[in-house]
Protein backbone atom coordinates (compact mmCIF):
# COMPACT_ATOMS: atom_id res chain seq x y z
CA UNK A 1 0.00 0.00 0.00
CA UNK A 2 1.07 3.55 -0.75
CA UNK A 3 1.49 4.87 2.80
CA UNK A 4 2.15 8.38 1.55
CA UNK A 5 -1.20 8.36 -0.20
CA UNK A 6 -2.87 7.02 2.94
CA UNK A 7 -1.24 9.78 4.96
CA UNK A 8 -2.59 12.46 2.60
CA UNK A 9 -6.05 10.89 2.70
CA UNK A 10 -5.94 10.85 6.50
CA UNK A 11 -4.81 14.49 6.57
CA UNK A 12 -7.77 15.58 4.43
CA UNK A 13 -10.17 13.84 6.81
CA UNK A 14 -8.36 15.08 9.90
CA UNK A 15 -8.18 18.73 8.85
CA UNK A 16 -11.57 18.84 7.13
CA UNK A 17 -10.58 19.46 3.52
CA UNK A 18 -7.83 19.59 0.91
CA UNK A 19 -6.96 23.27 1.47
CA UNK A 20 -6.28 22.92 5.20
CA UNK A 21 -4.46 19.60 4.72
CA UNK A 22 -2.18 21.21 2.13
CA UNK A 23 -1.40 24.08 4.53
CA UNK A 24 -0.60 21.75 7.43
CA UNK A 25 1.58 19.48 5.31
CA UNK A 26 3.21 22.40 3.46
CA UNK A 27 2.27 20.88 0.10
CA UNK A 28 0.43 22.62 -2.74
CA UNK A 29 -3.32 22.01 -2.93
CA UNK A 30 -3.21 20.61 -6.51
CA UNK A 31 -0.49 18.15 -5.44
CA UNK A 32 -2.61 16.88 -2.55
CA UNK A 33 -5.67 16.48 -4.77
CA UNK A 34 -3.81 14.66 -7.54
CA UNK A 35 -1.98 12.28 -5.19
CA UNK A 36 -5.15 11.34 -3.34
CA UNK A 37 -6.93 10.64 -6.63
CA UNK A 38 -4.00 8.44 -7.66
CA UNK A 39 -4.26 6.69 -4.29
CA UNK A 40 -7.95 5.99 -4.97
CA UNK A 41 -7.09 4.55 -8.39
CA UNK A 42 -4.39 2.31 -6.87
CA UNK A 43 -6.87 0.98 -4.32
CA UNK A 44 -9.68 0.69 -6.85
CA UNK A 45 -12.01 2.18 -4.25
CA UNK A 46 -13.65 5.64 -4.24
CA UNK A 47 -12.89 7.30 -0.91
CA UNK A 48 -14.58 10.68 -1.46
CA UNK A 49 -17.78 11.81 -3.13
CA UNK A 50 -18.69 15.39 -4.08
CA UNK A 51 -21.63 17.22 -2.58
CA UNK A 52 -21.52 20.41 -4.51
CA UNK A 53 -18.15 21.96 -3.67
CA UNK A 54 -17.75 19.82 -0.56
CA UNK A 55 -16.01 16.45 -0.32
CA UNK A 56 -17.67 13.78 1.80
CA UNK A 57 -16.41 10.34 2.70
CA UNK A 58 -17.83 7.25 1.05
CA UNK A 59 -18.65 4.25 3.24
CA UNK A 60 -15.31 2.72 2.23
CA UNK A 61 -13.58 6.01 3.04
CA UNK A 62 -15.17 6.06 6.50
CA UNK A 63 -13.97 2.50 7.24
CA UNK A 64 -10.49 3.24 5.90
CA UNK A 65 -10.32 6.30 8.16
CA UNK A 66 -10.58 4.06 11.22
CA UNK A 67 -7.71 1.86 10.03
CA UNK A 68 -5.59 4.91 9.16
CA UNK A 69 -6.12 6.45 12.58
CA UNK A 70 -5.04 3.26 14.35
CA UNK A 71 -2.00 2.91 12.06
CA UNK A 72 -0.77 6.46 12.58
CA UNK A 73 -1.43 6.30 16.32
CA UNK A 74 0.74 3.17 16.39
CA UNK A 75 3.38 5.01 14.36
CA UNK A 76 3.35 7.78 16.95
CA UNK A 77 3.70 5.20 19.73
CA UNK A 78 6.73 3.75 17.94
CA UNK A 79 8.29 7.20 17.57
CA UNK A 80 7.65 7.94 21.26
CA UNK A 81 9.20 4.62 22.26
CA UNK A 82 12.31 5.24 20.16
CA UNK A 83 12.64 8.74 21.59
CA UNK A 84 12.23 7.47 25.18
CA UNK A 85 14.62 4.57 24.55
CA UNK A 86 17.31 6.91 23.22
CA UNK A 87 16.86 9.09 26.31
CA UNK A 88 17.11 6.06 28.60
CA UNK A 89 13.54 6.48 29.84
CA UNK A 90 12.44 3.06 28.55
CA UNK A 91 14.11 -0.23 27.84
CA UNK A 92 15.01 -3.59 29.35
CA UNK A 93 18.17 -4.17 31.39
CA UNK A 94 19.28 -7.73 32.13
CA UNK A 95 21.70 -7.68 35.03
CA UNK A 96 23.56 -10.55 36.65
CA UNK A 97 25.33 -10.24 39.98
CA UNK A 98 27.37 -12.32 42.38
CA UNK A 99 25.96 -12.92 45.85
CA UNK A 100 27.78 -10.14 47.70
CA UNK A 101 26.50 -7.17 45.64
CA UNK A 102 23.16 -8.83 44.95
CA UNK A 103 22.36 -9.24 48.65
CA UNK A 104 23.99 -6.17 50.18
CA UNK A 105 24.32 -3.45 47.53
CA UNK A 106 22.01 -3.83 44.55
CA UNK A 107 18.63 -3.68 46.33
CA UNK A 108 19.24 -0.09 47.45
CA UNK A 109 20.91 0.95 44.21
CA UNK A 110 18.14 -0.48 42.05
CA UNK A 111 15.42 1.05 44.22
CA UNK A 112 16.93 4.50 43.70
CA UNK A 113 17.28 3.86 39.96
CA UNK A 114 13.63 2.81 39.64
CA UNK A 115 12.50 5.94 41.47
CA UNK A 116 14.06 7.96 38.63
CA UNK A 117 13.42 5.53 35.73
CA UNK A 118 10.11 3.87 36.54
CA UNK A 119 9.43 2.70 32.97
CA UNK A 120 12.75 0.86 32.58
CA UNK A 121 12.32 -2.88 33.16
CA UNK A 122 15.04 -4.62 35.19
CA UNK A 123 15.63 -8.37 35.29
CA UNK A 124 18.22 -9.38 37.91
CA UNK A 125 19.74 -12.82 38.42
CA UNK A 126 22.00 -13.83 41.32
CA UNK A 127 24.69 -16.44 40.77
CA UNK A 128 28.32 -17.31 41.42
CA UNK A 129 31.28 -15.68 39.71
CA UNK A 130 31.72 -18.31 37.02
CA UNK A 131 28.07 -18.23 35.97
CA UNK A 132 27.89 -14.42 36.12
CA UNK A 133 30.64 -14.05 33.52
CA UNK A 134 29.17 -16.86 31.43
CA UNK A 135 25.83 -15.03 31.32
CA UNK A 136 27.54 -11.76 30.40
CA UNK A 137 29.56 -13.29 27.56
CA UNK A 138 26.60 -15.33 26.26
CA UNK A 139 24.57 -12.10 25.95
CA UNK A 140 22.14 -13.26 28.64
CA UNK A 141 23.00 -10.11 30.62
CA UNK A 142 24.10 -6.62 29.67
CA UNK A 143 25.77 -5.83 33.00
CA UNK A 144 27.46 -7.97 35.65
CA UNK A 145 28.04 -6.60 39.14
CA UNK A 146 30.88 -8.53 40.74
CA UNK A 147 32.22 -8.84 44.26
CA UNK A 148 35.41 -10.85 44.66
CA UNK A 149 39.16 -10.98 44.14
CA UNK A 150 39.24 -8.73 41.06
CA UNK A 151 40.12 -11.54 38.66
CA UNK A 152 40.53 -10.68 35.00
CA UNK A 153 38.37 -12.27 32.34
CA UNK A 154 38.91 -12.17 28.58
CA UNK A 155 36.36 -10.05 26.75
CA UNK A 156 35.19 -8.26 29.91
CA UNK A 157 35.61 -4.57 30.73
CA UNK A 158 36.10 -3.87 34.45
CA UNK A 159 34.96 -0.71 36.19
CA UNK A 160 36.22 -1.05 39.75
CA UNK A 161 33.97 0.65 42.31
CA UNK A 162 35.68 0.10 45.67
CA UNK A 163 37.50 -2.44 47.83
CA UNK A 164 36.74 -3.85 51.25
CA UNK A 165 38.59 -6.28 53.54
CA UNK A 166 38.20 -10.05 53.68
CA UNK A 167 37.60 -11.36 57.20
CA UNK A 168 37.65 -14.71 58.96
CA UNK A 169 34.62 -14.90 61.26
CA UNK A 170 33.35 -17.34 63.88
CA UNK A 171 30.71 -17.49 66.59
CA UNK A 172 31.54 -15.19 69.55
CA UNK A 173 31.93 -18.27 71.81
CA UNK A 174 34.49 -19.90 69.51
CA UNK A 175 37.97 -20.37 71.07
CA UNK A 176 39.55 -18.22 68.35
CA UNK A 177 37.05 -15.34 68.62
CA UNK A 178 38.92 -12.03 68.73
CA UNK A 179 42.34 -13.72 68.78
CA UNK A 180 45.33 -13.59 66.47
CA UNK A 181 46.39 -17.00 65.16
CA UNK A 182 48.36 -18.63 62.35
CA UNK A 183 46.77 -19.43 59.00
CA UNK A 184 47.42 -23.18 59.49
CA UNK A 185 45.36 -23.05 62.70
CA UNK A 186 42.54 -21.16 61.04
CA UNK A 187 42.17 -23.46 58.03
CA UNK A 188 42.14 -26.52 60.28
CA UNK A 189 38.68 -25.40 61.40
CA UNK A 190 35.56 -26.65 59.56
CA UNK A 191 34.41 -24.01 57.08
CA UNK A 192 30.92 -23.14 55.91
CA UNK A 193 31.17 -21.85 52.37
CA UNK A 194 29.28 -21.43 49.13
CA UNK A 195 29.32 -23.84 46.20
CA UNK A 196 32.22 -24.39 43.81
CA UNK A 197 32.41 -21.49 41.37
CA UNK A 198 32.26 -19.00 44.23
CA UNK A 199 35.20 -16.57 43.93
CA UNK A 200 35.55 -16.35 47.71
CA UNK A 201 35.77 -20.13 48.11
CA UNK A 202 38.35 -20.35 45.31
CA UNK A 203 40.30 -17.54 46.95
CA UNK A 204 40.44 -19.37 50.27
CA UNK A 205 41.72 -22.50 48.54
CA UNK A 206 44.30 -20.40 46.65
CA UNK A 207 45.44 -18.82 49.93
CA UNK A 208 46.12 -22.29 51.35
CA UNK A 209 47.93 -23.41 48.21
CA UNK A 210 50.16 -20.29 48.24
CA UNK A 211 51.14 -21.04 51.85
CA UNK A 212 51.73 -24.76 51.22
CA UNK A 213 48.78 -25.78 53.35
CA UNK A 214 46.13 -28.40 52.72
CA UNK A 215 42.85 -27.15 51.31
CA UNK A 216 40.34 -26.12 54.00
CA UNK A 217 37.67 -28.61 54.97
CA UNK A 218 34.29 -27.43 53.69
CA UNK A 219 32.06 -28.99 56.32
CA UNK A 220 28.86 -27.33 55.09
CA UNK A 221 28.03 -25.94 51.67
CA UNK A 222 25.17 -23.61 50.73
CA UNK A 223 24.15 -22.00 47.47
CA UNK A 224 23.46 -18.72 49.20
CA UNK A 225 25.49 -16.15 51.11
CA UNK A 226 23.08 -15.48 53.96
CA UNK A 227 22.77 -19.19 54.72
CA UNK A 228 26.51 -19.56 55.29
CA UNK A 229 26.50 -16.65 57.75
CA UNK A 230 23.41 -17.93 59.57
CA UNK A 231 25.08 -21.29 60.15
CA UNK A 232 28.14 -19.63 61.73
CA UNK A 233 25.86 -17.49 63.89
CA UNK A 234 24.19 -20.71 65.02
CA UNK A 235 27.51 -21.80 66.50
CA UNK A 236 29.25 -24.04 64.00
CA UNK A 237 32.36 -23.58 61.89
CA UNK A 238 34.09 -20.56 60.38
CA UNK A 239 33.64 -18.39 57.33
CA UNK A 240 35.93 -16.34 55.10
CA UNK A 241 33.93 -13.44 53.75
CA UNK A 242 33.76 -9.79 52.75
CA UNK A 243 33.68 -7.43 55.72
CA UNK A 244 30.82 -5.62 53.98
CA UNK A 245 28.61 -8.63 54.70
CA UNK A 246 29.44 -9.19 58.36
CA UNK A 247 30.62 -5.84 59.72
CA UNK A 248 27.31 -5.08 61.45
CA UNK A 249 27.12 -8.60 62.94
CA UNK A 250 30.63 -8.23 64.34
CA UNK A 251 29.88 -4.78 65.75
CA UNK A 252 26.73 -6.08 67.48
CA UNK A 253 28.36 -9.23 68.82
CA UNK A 254 26.57 -11.81 66.70
CA UNK A 255 29.88 -12.82 65.09
CA UNK A 256 33.53 -12.36 65.98
CA UNK A 257 36.62 -11.80 63.87
CA UNK A 258 39.67 -14.03 63.89
CA UNK A 259 42.88 -12.16 63.05
CA UNK A 260 45.21 -14.30 60.96
CA UNK A 261 48.85 -13.29 60.89
CA UNK A 262 50.09 -12.16 57.50
CA UNK A 263 46.69 -12.31 55.80
CA UNK A 264 45.33 -8.95 54.65
CA UNK A 265 43.26 -9.54 51.57
CA UNK A 266 40.98 -7.10 49.80
CA UNK A 267 37.70 -7.72 48.04
CA UNK A 268 36.88 -5.85 44.82
CA UNK A 269 33.39 -4.70 43.86
CA UNK A 270 33.13 -3.89 40.16
CA UNK A 271 30.68 -3.30 37.33
CA UNK A 272 31.54 -5.48 34.34
CA UNK A 273 30.39 -5.19 30.74
CA UNK A 274 31.41 -6.76 27.44
CA UNK A 275 34.61 -5.13 26.21
CA UNK A 276 34.21 -2.77 23.26
CA UNK A 277 30.41 -2.57 23.42
CA UNK A 278 28.25 0.48 23.94
CA UNK A 279 25.59 0.06 26.61
CA UNK A 280 21.95 0.85 25.96
CA UNK A 281 21.05 4.35 27.24
CA UNK A 282 19.06 2.94 30.17
CA UNK A 283 21.91 0.60 31.15
CA UNK A 284 24.35 3.51 30.93
CA UNK A 285 22.16 5.51 33.33
CA UNK A 286 22.15 2.55 35.75
CA UNK A 287 25.94 2.21 35.64
CA UNK A 288 26.32 5.95 36.28
CA UNK A 289 24.02 5.72 39.31
CA UNK A 290 25.93 2.69 40.65
CA UNK A 291 29.20 4.61 40.31
CA UNK A 292 27.73 7.54 42.23
CA UNK A 293 26.36 5.33 45.00
CA UNK A 294 29.60 3.35 45.28
CA UNK A 295 31.68 6.51 45.50
CA UNK A 296 29.92 7.28 48.80
CA UNK A 297 31.18 3.99 50.26
CA UNK A 298 34.90 4.60 49.68
Automatic annotation (TrEMBL):
Keyword DNA-binding among record annotations: yes
InterPro entries, alphabetized: LysR_HTH_N (IPR000847), LysR_subst-bd (IPR005119), WH-like_DNA-bd_sf (IPR036388), WH_DNA-bd_sf (IPR036390)
Keywords: DNA-binding, Transcription, Transcription regulation
Gene3D superfamilies recorded: Periplasmic binding protein-like II, Winged helix-like DNA-binding domain superfamily/Winged helix DNA-binding domain
All residue ranges annotated as the HTH lysR-type domain in the record: 1-58
Presence of the UniProt keyword Transcription regulation in the record: yes
Family: Belongs to the LysR transcriptional regulatory family.
The protein's name: LysR family transcriptional regulator
Species name: Paenibacillus taichungensis
Classification lineage: Bacteria, Bacillati, Bacillota, Bacilli, Bacillales
Amino acid sequence: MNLHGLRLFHAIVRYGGVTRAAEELNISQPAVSSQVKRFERELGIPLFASEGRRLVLTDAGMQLTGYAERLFMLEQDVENFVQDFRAGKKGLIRLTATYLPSNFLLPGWIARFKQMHEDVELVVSTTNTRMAFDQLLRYEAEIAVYGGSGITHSGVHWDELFEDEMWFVVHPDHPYAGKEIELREMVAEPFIMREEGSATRERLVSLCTTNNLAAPRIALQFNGLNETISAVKAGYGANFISSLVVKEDVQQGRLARVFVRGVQLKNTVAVCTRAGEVLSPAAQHLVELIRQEASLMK
